[in-house]
Amino acid sequence: MLLHQAAVCQNWEVAIYPAEIMERLTEPKNNADLRDANASGTGVSFLCGSRVTIKLRIDPDSNIVTAGGFTTNGCGYMAAAADTRLDEIAGKPVAELGSLRAGENYPERRRQCSEVVAEALRKALADNRQRIVEEYTGEKALICTCFGVGEDTIESVIRKQGANSVDAVSEMCRAGLGCGSCRMLIQEMLDDAEATSGAV
Hints:
Layout: H1 11-16, H2 19-26, E1 39-44, E2 51-58, E3 65-72, H3 76-89, H4 111-135, E4 142-144, E5 149-150, H5 151-159, H6 166-173, H7 183-199
Antiparallel strand pairs: 1-2, 2-3, 4-5
């Protein structure tokens, strides 16, 4: 049972929606209120007032999207966009989802439906990031908020495991693989380690 208000069984809607949209409406894969989700976000259309809520289950260790679900009171295009996008991101690391784009195969007047879904997903990822920050318990500063990597871990990777570049640090502990905002801090830590080593 779809959790949106489009009455897909009515003949007039069959005429309105293209075949690929109808397929998503009649056989959705992700239309559910995911109860064990640990990240969620809601997007709202400024044109029609419809909203869509995306819920994700993200593995805290690997930061991979393991499941997703959506609810919406929007039209069939919005429901199909949410269902399709959740299929696309299932099983992928959060680090690969930083450049979400609205679907380009929608009619111009329906493009905003896909854009609202993209907004909801961005908010869900922001919610996940906030959770990581709040749950961090390290003694030193949290450097990478995307993956919850603290200063002590990065220092260990640099000084004990021999990482000598930002990419090497990222490969060893995942810091810097997300939004990239911490890469400058990682470089500063590398520079400090090199200066300290040279001074000894």
